[in-house]
Design goal:
single chain, seven-stranded mixed beta sheet, 11 strands, 8 helices, alpha/beta
Amino acid sequence: MSVLVILATGAEEMETVIPTDVLRRAQLNVTVAGLSGADPVVCSRSVKLVPDKSLDDAVKEGPYDAVVLPGGGDGAKNLAASEKVKKILQEQEAGGRIIAAICAGPTALLSHGIAKGKKVTSHPGVKDKMEGSGQYTYSEDRVVRDGQLITSRGPGTAFEFALALVEALKGKETVDKIVPPMLVKL
């Protein structure tokens, strides 16, 4: 099974790295794709992350079983402004495959008209935008799954978010296997 994590300038580091790591521990084939290319990406706290490849190259290997949108204010704005991301999300939704977004990442769903009518959560800082759009049913839960859509709230929920993705893709047995060695408290 394959997962595409789209890395944009200004992305939140933990919301990118934790899901990537946890998904790889679950033996999923994860591609971190740079929205603007394959060069190192400066994230929200000035940490530089190196994508596996450019988004343009990664798309050629799709479709993916899941697409992940990390948050971070500027990162989410870059995802929301991208026609490439819009096309990927539209194809993912049309194919009935998983879309996952954390923190401010769900605002890209809103910008691209994805998952209308679904139950979502997000970082409290973008709650009014998500709720006020009238496009979604908003929840304060730490992780929300509505069909093939998984959303979460922020850096502090990144492990729960990642594990919800693992469960959706590989089942609860895999989650139960990878949690103990990580010493994650759920």
